[in-house]
Sequence to fold (64 residues):
Amino acid sequence: MAAAACLALGALSLHTNLTDHLRYRRAAVQLERYHAALLASTAVSAERGPANSAMGGREEDRAT
Fold:
């Protein structure tokens, strides 16, 4: 009886640890995607500044 209880507790612990591991692995992938999205938005924003200055505004406000 005690052996069965130990096996059940071990299996429960293993299941919990495996579930946490898979959750953290998915979170790492999502974090990489978020980082890529931030880099892309930074690149787009950097391109918009000179274009906005060239399309309007005063000469002294234009980016160089």
